[in-house]
Amino acid sequence: MLKSLQGKTVIVTGASRGIGKGIARRFGEAGLNVLVVSRSQADADGVAAEIGPNCAGFAADVSTPEGAEAMVRAAVERFGGVDILCANAGIFPAAKLGEMTPADFDHVISTNLKSTFLSVSAVLPEMTRKGEGWIVITSSITGPVTGYPGWSHYGASKAGQLGFMRTAAIELAPKGITVNAVLPGNIFTEGLEGMGADYIASMESSIPLKRLGTAADIANAALFFASQEAAYITGQTITVDGGQILPESPGALAAM
């Protein structure tokens, strides 16, 4: 399965750690050329070195048009083109309403949502030239499905990604380009580890599978969306959360 991916080129934004790093590693294992994009050249190069010779690191701020366009040029120069975009760049600083500043809100929206638009816009010429392309957005259950105190700006950015995705899927379908999204639940990454042991234990207890997900769990879903096997799927989402959003109350878990 997924033999259609051999030799293709993927750009993964926000790929120096966490879910992005997991996505980049999984695509590299599947035989793709991988451009690891991060704001830090050193971090991007470090991940690329871990993955292997079919991978290169590139530093860019994809919340700017210049950064997004530069990463595409880098992929074309290094690998000859772009077949797949995994728009994964994102941040989730906590700030509750009443404390959150306009600058806080703008920073999250720019990093998470605007960067998705700019990255998609930047790869369009290459994908249009090829007559096909696969775009996979890393959204979240927070915003589209659930909420969490302190993350109203994050939730807005992630819900916004899905609104963007649905119209983008319609507009880009005639060009042979699909646009889909993965919605992670609580995934064990460096960022989540920083929330503390009590938070992690609380999250595990609220998940029917009784564990946090891994970056590989998200990467496998992204890999499927990017494959020829998913060629007739566009404008859709896969929730990868261990069943987290299923219980209607804590009592439903207790009844297990």
Features:
Rossmann fold, globular, alpha/beta, 46% helix
Structure description:
- The protein is of the alpha/beta class.
- The chain has a single domain, classed as Rossmann fold (3-Layer(aba) Sandwich), CATH 3.40.50.
- It has 9 helices and 7 strands.
- It has helices spanning 18-29, 41-51, 65-79, 102-130, 152-172, 190-193, 197-205, 215-225, 250-254; strands spanning 9-13, 33-38, 55-59, 84-87, 133-138, 177-184, 237-240.
- Strands 3-2-1-4-5-6-7 form a 7-stranded parallel sheet, with helices on both faces.
- Strand 2, helix 2 and strand 3 (55-59) form a beta-alpha-beta unit.
- Helix 1 (18-29) crosses helix 8, helix 3 (65-79) packs parallel to helix 4 and helix 4 runs parallel beside helix 5.
- The two termini are 35 Å apart.
Q: Give the proportion of residues in helices.
A: 40-55%
> What count of domains describes the coordinates?
1
Overall residue-averaged pLDDT value: 95
Strand order of the largest sheet: 3-2-1-4-5-6-7
Q: What Rg do the Cα atoms give?
A: 18 Å
Strand pairing plus helix content: what structural class? alpha/beta
Tell me the CATH architecture. Answer: 3-Layer(aba) Sandwich
Separation of termini? 35 Å
Could you tell me the number of beta strands? 7
CATH class: Alpha Beta
Based on CA inertia axes, which overall geometry fits? globular
Order of helices and strands: EHEHEHEHEHEHHHEH
- What amount of the residues lies in strands? 5-15%
Q: Count every helix, treating DSSP H or I runs of 4 or more residues as helices.
A: 9
How can the largest sheet be summarized?
Answer: 7 strands, parallel
CATH topology: Rossmann fold
Low-confidence stretches: none
The name of the CATH superfamily reads NAD(P)-binding Rossmann-like Domain
